[in-house]
Amino acid sequence: MAGEGESIWRDEGTLNMEMTGATGAAFAEDQDTFWHTTTHIMAQAVCRLFPSARYAIGPTIEAGFYYDFDLGRNFLPEDLEKIEAEMRKIVEENHTVEHMLWTKPEAAEFFEKRGQMFKVELIQGLPEGKVSIYRQGEFTDLCRGPHLKRTGLVRHFKLLSFSGCYWRANDKGPKLQRIYGISYQDTKMLTEFVRRREEAEKRDHRRLGVELDLFSMDETLGGGLVLYHPKGSAMRAVIEDFLKRAHRKLGYEYIYSPHMANANLWKISGHYENYKENMYFTQIEEQEFGIKPMNCPFHIQVYRSHLRSYRELPIRYFELGTVYRFERSGVLHGLLRVRGFTQDDAHIFCREDQLTGEIERVLDFVRSVLRLFGFSYTVGVGTRPEKYMGDPALWDRATAALRAALEARQMAYEMHEGDGAFYGPKIDVALKDALGRSWQGPTIQVDFNLPQRFELEYVGEGGDRKCPVMIHRAILGSLERFIGCLIEHYAGDFPLWLAPVQARVIAVAESAAGAYSREVLDQLRASDVRADSDNREETLGKRIRAAELEKIPVIAVLGEREAQGRSVNVRRRGKKDQEVLSLTEFVERMRRESATPDGAIEL
RNA sequence: GCCGGCGUAGCUCAGUCGGUAGAGCAACUCACUUGUAAUGAGUAGGUCGCCGGUUCGACUCCGGCCGCCGGCUCCA
Questions:
Q1: Cβ distance A529 to A234 under 8 Å?
Q2: In angstroms, rounded to a whole number, what is the distance separating the alpha carbons of residues A436 and A182?
Q3: What is the mean pLDDT of residues A57-74?
Q4: Which nucleotides of B are covered by protein (CB under 7 A)?
Q5: Domains (ranges, CATH) in chain A?
Q6: Stretch among A59-73, A462-476, A557-571 having the lowest mean pLDDT
Q7: Which position among A30, A79, A204, A345 bears the catalytic label?
Q8: Nearest nucleotide (C1') to the CA of residue A107?
Q9: pLDDT at A413 over 70
Q10: What are the residue ranges of helices labelled H in A94-204?
Q11: For residue A145, which nucleotide's C1' is closest to its Cα?
Q12: Is A247 a catalytic residue?
């Protein structure tokens, strides 16, 4: 709602919509206003075409806007065209956008008379005082604004999609229809937006997963379960190898634990009470077993296996732990949201005075790994949720420790109230996919609760028994989600060390270099390079093209010249110009450049 | 789960008014023996997602189910 002195509209004179010269906040705000007015134009068009339509809310989003309607029937694809046509008319008519302040009863009466019950409900939820109303032509809407001054300023727009949704996101409430759209002042920006969207679709990991033969999902298996093909498995193995080395260097000990456990374990841990709806259970010899949704209780049991001294702490257990969680079928999404996944999970048991230091070490670890992969990310701190266990005072201490570590490392973060795990607050790091959607990857959680529930202890300096604190943490999050993000991040053009096939050996013709090509392949493999060959009876051009489409980083072409001179003609992915190296030098270079980073984390 | 859309060969897709399906790529065979992004000819490949209904007859129409895709948080 607009208050005294706030801007209630923007004219073309104050708009700063040019891509060049527009700076951060001002640009974003003007863009927002532009989109907001566009969504009103869309609502106006819908109301003209569907006079009985009731309009609900129409906010702007990160890219564009939407508006929710109840119109008694579903939208059809051809409706979007009709609505766009009507919107063009409204732009052409160039209505002045009027701003008014009404009393709540006035506004409620106005919308009630017109059957706009959603607006009436919104008005009732507003604080006492005047409510802000905007009107353009025959269309009147409750809206905080600001808006453009005239509808004629919205020149280039496009309706993108429609889908079902609910009033106030409540699946028991009224069902609505939502239309998404985008608009720009400049036609070039609109074209650019559409182009970028198409570009992003090409990076989609589900599409590249098929094209590059990395993984698949199979309805016969069930939703959310991943089959890694040989090439996807090769990548995963590289990442696992990297993780194991990095953890070893940072003082973690690698362990294994089973995939399921007696329900009694889950009762002690609190999962039975707080996480049951996400778990799979099975009955064996009248005993109930739960498949693990988390690894923590197992690591705790390893800690408990004998008495610990304060001198041993911190103890850091690391596992590539495969867990299963029930997720509602509608939320599954390629590799980015699955039901079975493997976490690069670790649990650190330490004294409370070691807590902040340990969190800082984990933050450094996360940052250096994300830097290695070139990811950008955002950081949030999730606090105590509704369903929690333990003493709120401990929660506060845990949250304070997380924030202190972030501040010590000067990392910007947002507070996400109520977003913590049921046993403790957490730092979440979000990575973005090709379409700009955020996915939680790395996470750091402080837990005073499970150590108490499992009655963990260590012998202190004075011989007294004390309870350690636990940190649950994952660096990548899950391998599935991370690999999905990685595919989109690199658009399948993986750096040499990650590429499933690092080099392909191609003999120009069997007669010219067949035997030599097999020797080159053997030498590469002997040097731990992931290499294969393509000596099919196809033209060289066709085999080069196939290798380029498979995004193989290095192509070694061998003909009579190379066989005679024991050399290799090297073509790098996407580059036409080639380089000739001696066989020895080629193999040595490949060995060096294609090796997995040794896990030496720069702290 | 809910709302909407979609489901035809390994992949991308065509298939008119209801008369049991077709192309390109990939695969395979043969010829060519190839010098940096598609050589030519041929062969094979389908319970049209599954189940039921209507019909003389269903990829097509109707119902149910399964799966996939988008959305269901970003507060007038």
A1: no
A2: 15
A3: 83
A4: 1-5, 11-12, 26-28, 30-39, 66-76
A5: 9-202 (3.30.980.10), 207-490 (3.30.930.10), 503-593 (3.40.50.800)
A6: A59-73
A7: A345
A8: B76
A9: yes
A10: 104-113, 117-124, 187-203
A11: B76
A12: no
- What gap in Å lies between CA A18 and CA A86, rounded to an integer? 27
Average pLDDT over residues A46-61: 88
Residue A211 CA and nucleotide B43 C1' are separated, in Å, by 26
A255 touches strand B (CB under 7 A): no
pTM above 0.90, yes or no: no
- Residue appearing with tokens 């806007």: A65
Residue whose tokens read 């290695």: A372
Is A347 labeled as catalytic in the residue annotation?
A: yes
Q: What value does the mean pLDDT of chain A take? A: 87
Please state, in angstroms and rounded to a whole number, the distance separating the CA atoms of residues A257 and A214.
Answer: 27
Q: Tokens in use for A250?
A: 């940072």
CA A535 to C1' B40, in angstroms, rounded, equals 19
Taking the C-alpha atoms of residue A466 and residue A456, their distance in angstroms, rounded to an integer, is 8
Q: Is A343 considered catalytic here?
A: yes
pLDDT for A121-137, tens place per residue?
888 888 888 888 889 99
A532 labelled catalytic:
no
Residue–nucleotide distance: A22 CA to B57 C1' (Å): 66
Half-sphere exposure of A66 (CA within 13 A, CB side): 17
Task: List, for residues A139-166, the tens digit of each pLDDT value.
Answer: 999 988 788 888 888 888 888 888 778 8
- Give the pLDDT band of residue A549 (cuts 50, 70, 90): very high
Q: Is the CB of A411 under 7 A from strand B?
A: no
Band (pLDDT 50/70/90 cuts) for residue A422 is confident
Predicted ipTM > 0.90: no
- Residue A143 known to be catalytic: no
Does A314 sit behind a cis peptide bond, omega within 30 degrees of 0 on the bond before it?
Answer: yes
Q: Which of residues 72-91 of A touch strand B (CB under 7 A)?
A: 74-76
- The residues pairing with A228 across neighbouring beta strands, listed in sequence order, are A215
Both tokens assigned to A430? 């979000």
Determine the pLDDT at residue A15: 47
Best CA proximity match to A362, nearest among A309, A394, A409, A431: A409
> Is A419 noted as a catalytic residue in this protein?
no
Structure tokens at A234: 């090769």
Q: Is A472 a catalytic residue?
A: yes
Distance of CA A24 to the CA centre of its chain: 23
Residues 6 or more apart whose CB falls under 8 angstroms from that of A188 comprise none
